[in-house]
Amino acid sequence: MAQPNFAVPVPQRPQNVDRTKRSWPIGFAIAAVVIFIFYSFILPYLTPDIRTVVQHWMPLGTINTALIWAMSALGLNIVVGYAGLLDLGYVAFWALGGYAAAWLMSYFVPVSAINILGNAAPGTKTGLHLNILLVLIGAAAFCALFGVIIGAPTLRLRSDYLALVTLGFGEIIPQIFKNGDDFFGHNISNGTQSIGPIDAVEGVTARTTVVAGVAQHTDVGWGDLLAFDHSGRFIMFTLLTALIIFISLRIRQGRLGRAWLAIREDELAASAMGVPLMRAKLAAYAVGAVAGGICGVAYALQLNRMLPDPFTFSVSITLLAMVVLGGMGNVWGVLVGALLIAWFNSTGLPEIGDTVNGTFGTNIDFPSYSFLIFGGTLVIMMLFRREGLLPERRTRLVLHEGAAGDTQAEEPDEELVDQAGAVK
């Protein structure tokens, strides 16, 4: 008589799990290391012609600016791509984070100098001078508070009405800062005169000496390696971008992230299934605002001052275009879309225009046609690739369900299969 088998079966990992999830983080880390090594140790020793080409087409300052745009686009992706809440005023959080950094890292606040692990300039007698980590935490909390404030009155609104409210918020905040030199009798932003200079970042400033009136580095070591010039900013901005990416990926796999996806797909059905709409929406605005605040701090450090002029409605539209073109809901797609559009808008289009004009002897002002190019690109994308360059898997299946037939629509979501296998 055969003996019964009491062995406990070992759960097998599904065979169709996407094993490329680690490739993007590893690729991002490798790209960051390669860029830093190239610009810090290789580019200075190349021929002048090669250095000129690199500085024209891909200067490190442009990469830093692109990373700032990427931080903000990733934050907007949480609100729009995850929760499906159309936000046309996200630039306000960028401005709030920047001014929070200016208040906490400069002479501006009219109090006796308070230095908390900061790096105030010698002889500074007024202002708050906090360490950069404290500034990041303070700016993130400040923007999260405003995210809740803007989210609270919009809980009943959807679609176009929600977009109008966020549009108004995005227009009001920059105007407050622009006219903030007399805000109910108080100066909160110095108006259009800007707040600056902002304190240097302590711990990443190289030791220098002055020879014949020219500042020169006297030693070569970690101090020079981490000098807060373009290379130092690149290291810091890369780490901040990686932090936002990590938060976006981790929170999407949790309970809150699944609640956002349910609201995005069908808010009424999500409510019927017990999803707390109020808390989920407020959390989406707050977490997205945190990313905007971090982006604002990075922007203030990049400019070394803060002024209200750059925060226009077109910035919010550009951020939304980055999310849509990259792949709404997909963190890596949004990152790629933001980097590409930021580079194209700041350096790529002018350099392409100069090349075309020099080759064909024309005199066309290519940067003046940037909105025409963006508009045409959006039209083409909506006609032929609505899901974006690197779409989220769910979005791709939904948009291609009718065109690809039932076979493709019935394919299991590999991400859900992976989660199910982990639960087992």
Task: Give a brief outline of the structure.
This protein is mainly alpha-helical. The protein has helices spanning 23-42, 48-57, 60-82, 91-104, 132-151, 159-178, 222-225, 230-253, 255-265, 267-272, 277-303, 313-326, 331-360, 370-384, 393-399, 401-404, 406-409, 414-423; strands spanning 105-106, 114-116, 128-130, 208-211, 214-217. A hairpin with a 2-residue loop joins strand 4 and strand 5 (214-217).
Describe this structure as you would to a colleague.
- This protein is mostly helical and 424 residues long.
- The protein has a domain at 58-310.
- It has helices spanning 23-42, 48-57, 60-82, 91-104, 132-151, 159-178, 222-225, 230-253, 255-265, 267-272, 277-303, 313-326, 331-360, 370-384, 393-399, 401-404, 406-409, 414-423, and strands at 105-106, 114-116, 128-130, 208-211, 214-217.
- It has a 3-stranded mixed β-sheet. It has a two-stranded antiparallel sheet with strand order 4-5.
- Strand 4 and strand 5 form a beta hairpin.
- The radius of gyration is 24 Å and the shape is globular.
